[in-house]
Amino acid sequence: MADPSIKAALAAKQFIVAPGIFDMISARIADRMGFKALYATGYGTVASHLGIPDAGVATFTDMVGRMARFSQGCRTPVIADADTGYGGLLNVRHTVMGYEAAGVTAIQLEDQEVPKKCGHTPGRRVVPAEEMALKIEVAAEARRSEDFLIIARTDARTTLGLDEAIRRGQLFRKAGADIVFIESPETEEEMKRIGGEIDAPLLANNVDGGGRTPILSAEKLASFGYSIAIYPAVGFLTMAAALERSYAHLLQHGDTNALPEGVIHDFGKMNELMGFPEVWEFDRRWARPEASRAAE
Q1: Residue 142 backbone dihedrals phi, psi, to 5 degrees
Q2: CATH assignment of 5-232, given 3.20.20.220, 1.10.1510.10, 3.20.20.60, 3.40.50.1460?
Q3: Are 193 and 166 in contact (CB under 8 A)?
Q4: Distance between CA atoms of residues 284 and 31, nearest Å
């Protein structure tokens, strides 16, 4: 069931910072931190689950099970990337129902053509605005709870310009979107204009490592009119960097002694993170004397 806390935070004008999660290790770590929401990144989830680019190959079936695991394995509400809704209007309806049943709190739908592409890579094309507006209407009708939020994303800025992206954001809001996401604005001035011209909670996509949009502080984003900042790549980029350093050290030295401090996690802490103490306590409570086992 959708968590009402995100909707309540938006109503109370509380800014939401959401780190990207892409597997259950990243989800468990982020879940302990005290964030108001977690962002289940499509790029990272497809990469970790299938080892392929986020280029529209992953299906609803590939993704909904992963989103269910994130939602059910975390206490923090999950915002989930659902690409284009995996097809036409009927697919969007099915996707919304499936993600809501999985326990997701907010679903992100975008106006790209199929197959879609990552929002900070070239070659993206968008469907007609009216076609996407219908998808938003269908999504809003398909949900069971008003606490389940619809995020409408447009990728029009890169190919059609900022004016069209803002027009689409306004249209999608009227169609029933709870949150509007203008992907890939390229300057602070563009972001400020978006905040001034779209009357809706706004989401900013802060892509570390070379995204198209400047990464701004929560305070500055809030002053521009934004309500949510997602950091989809921070988790898997950090993991990739640490793995490269650790594996390179192992290849060069033949062991993992003298790895740089902070590169490798403490094994005991990892056991605790994954819930082993509960397993050990269960084993202690249900252990039987050796004599009882021998008699069997």
Answers
A1: -75, -25
A2: 3.20.20.60
A3: yes
A4: 28
- Per DSSP, 114 falls in state S
Instruction: Divide the 296 residues of the chain into consecutive groups of 10 and give the mean pLDDT of each group.
Output: 96 98 98 98 95 89 96 97 95 98 98 74 84 98 98 96 97 98 96 98 93 93 98 96 95 94 91 95 84 53
In Å, the largest CA–CA distance within the chain is 80
Burial of 280 (0-12, 13-18, 19+ CB in 10 A): exposed
What gap in Å lies between CA 86 and CA 61, rounded to an integer? 10
Give how far Cα 132 sits from Cα of 85, 230, 235, Å. 10, 22, 30
Selection from 49, 117, 105 nearest residue 77 by Cα: 105
User: Which residue in this structure is represented by tokens 């962002």?
Assistant: 39
Contacts of 160 by beta carbon, 8 Å cutoff, 6+ apart? 126
For strands 179-182 and 149-154, give the pairing.
parallel
The domain limits of the chain are 5-232, 240-295
**What single letter denotes the amino acid at residue 157?**
R
Q: pTM of the prediction?
A: 0.93
Cβ(36)–Cβ(17) under 8 Å?
Answer: yes
